[in-house]
Amino acid sequence: MRSRREVLLGAAVLLSVACSGAQTTGQRRGPITAGDYFPLRTGAAWSYDTRTGYGGDTVLSTLAVVGGEGTSFQVRSGTRTERYERRPDGIVREGDYILRDPIRAGASWDARDGGRFEVRALNLTRRVGEREFRHVIEVVRASPVTRILTTTWYARDVGVIEIQAETSSTVGGATGTIGVRSTLRSYTLGDE
């Protein structure tokens, strides 16, 4: 027969296991923010299959958080390293917000070069390769200076899953659209 102390200890263990399981169910506290769609932390990395607009070749491209301190991060893409910041109102790359809170359809903001960002859609489900992502947002950036239209799809707790950039070009007297499309191949979110 078990003593009262053993019964209480067993109940405490069961309660602690039950509570710890309840905490890991993925329940969120508070509102969804830009940081949920672009998880910046040292060691996070994404690889993409990028189909170029010239000849349709596919190349491997990467994005990796190679360092950070506080809310500022160095992110490398190929040979280029850029500064990203996680601010209370969004994610900033080299001084431009790429995502801005609150995340809602129709929200828009200006870029430094005269371009404009707009959240076009929320809560999408999007298939990229063999994977299906839920809780996806679509952000469009139009720039009158570069004449490039860029659509980026972000999955919550993953990051950028797909990017499409297009511009009109006149080559040899013919006008057409040239595009580049990157689709997520794999990712890791690095250190928590």
Report the β-strand fraction as a percent range: over 45%
Main structural class: mainly beta
For the biggest β-sheet, the strand order reads 6-5-4-3-2-1-12-11-10-9-8-7
Q: Outline, from the CA principal axes?
A: globular
Ends distance: 45 Å
Largest sheet: 12 strands, antiparallel
Summed over residues and divided by their number, the pLDDT gives a mean of 82
**Helix share of residues?**
10-25%
From the alpha carbons, calculate the radius of gyration and give it in angstroms. Answer: 22 Å
Q: How many β strands by DSSP?
A: 12
Descriptive terms for the model:
192 residues, mainly beta, twelve-stranded antiparallel β-sheet, 2 helices, 12 strands, 55% strand, disordered N terminus
Entry summary:
By secondary structure, the chain is mostly beta strands.
Can you walk me through this structure?
With 192 residues, this protein is mainly β. It contains two helices and twelve strands; from the N terminus they run H-H-E-E-E-E-E-E-E-E-E-E-E-E. The protein has helices at 4-23, 34-37; strands spanning 45-51, 58-69, 72-77, 80-87, 90-93, 96-100, 108-110, 116-128, 131-142, 149-155, 159-171, 174-188. Strands 6-5-4-3-2-1-12-11-10-9-8-7 form a twelve-stranded antiparallel sheet. Strand 8 and strand 9 form a beta hairpin. It starts with a helix and ends with a strand.
Topology of this protein?
Elements (H helix, E strand, L loop, with lengths): L3 H20 L10 H4 L7 E7 L6 E12 L2 E6 L2 E8 L2 E4 L2 E5 L7 E3 L5 E13 L2 E12 L6 E7 L3 E13 L2 E15 L4
